[in-house]
Amino acid sequence: MELDGTKVLERLIRRYPLGVRRIKEFLDSVEVYIRFQKLAEDNYGFYFFGDLGFFIILNKKRSKNYRKLTLAHEIAHIFYHKEQEEIVRKYSFGKEEDRKLEKIIDNEAQRLCHDYPDFIERLYRNAINVSKERLSYRLL
Ligand SMILES: [Zn+2]
User: Fold this and answer.
1) Do 44 and 70 form a contact (C-beta atoms < 8 A)?
2) Potential cystine with 44: which of 27, 61, 70, 85 (Cβ 3.0-4.6 Å)?
């Protein structure tokens, strides 16, 4: 029977859920930069892996709450980046799987915002203050 790659990611997240300590440790081990840009209205933001490290782009046009959720969402993507890439490479990934993967990551982001609102707020504020510098340094 063919395994669904999204199930693998779900299982992984259940085993290693994101929390404040895990995020701090993680951000200490990678380079993460935040940029605020004007994107299309329906675009929340995105992340990519560049020469310097990870970049998170947040949409200036969205409300603060959306941007905070997007920040948590992109951090979740980055946290599971390696595993995500592996899963996408290993299993067949079409539109449906992409949609499922986004939903899984988004659930994790919503849980983070719900369980650790102060931490996410602080992360967001630091992202504004030091958007040209590495986010990781200012968190600790
Ligand atoms: Zn996403």
Assistant:
1) yes
2) 70
**16: CB partners within 8 A, 6+ apart:** 22
Q: Give me the number of domains the chain comprises.
A: 1
**What is the block-wise mean pLDDT of the chain (140 residues), using blocks of 10 residues?**
81 93 89 87 90 88 93 94 91 90 95 96 80 52
Residue 36 to residue 57: CA distance in whole angstroms: 6
Domain membership of residue 46 (yes or no) is no
Distance 138 CA to ligand 1 centre (A): 24
Q: Is residue 45 part of a domain?
A: no
> Is residue 112 situated within a structural domain?
yes
| 44 Cα to the center of ligand 1, angstroms | 9
Contact 114, 19 (CB under 8 A): no
**1 Cα to the center of ligand 1, angstroms:** 28
CA–centroid distance, residue 47 to ligand 1 (Å): 8
pLDDT, position 130: 61
pLDDT the model gives residue 119: 93
Question: Cα(140) to centroid of ligand 1, in Å?
Answer: 25
